[in-house]
Amino acid sequence: SIAHVNNAELGRTLANSDQEPKRFIITYKEGHAPLLPLSDTLGGSSENHFVIGEILPETAARMNETDELYVEEDVQYRLIQPINLDGDPEEKLSIFSNSSSEQNSRLNLRSTEGNPYGIAMVRAPQVSRAWMYGPRTKKICIIDTGYNYDHGDLPAAGVSGYTGYLNNHIDWKQDGHGHGTHVAGIIGALNNDRGVVGVAPHVNLPLHIVRLFGGGASYVWASDVISAVQECVNAGSNVVNMSLGRNGEPMQSEINAYRKFLYDDNVLVVSASGNSGASSNAKFYPAAYENVISVASVAENSLRDSFSTHNAQVNLAAPGSHILSTFKNGGYTRLSGTSMSAPHVSGVAALVWSH
Question: N or C: more exposed end of the chain, with fewer CB within 10 A?
Answer without folding.
Answer: N
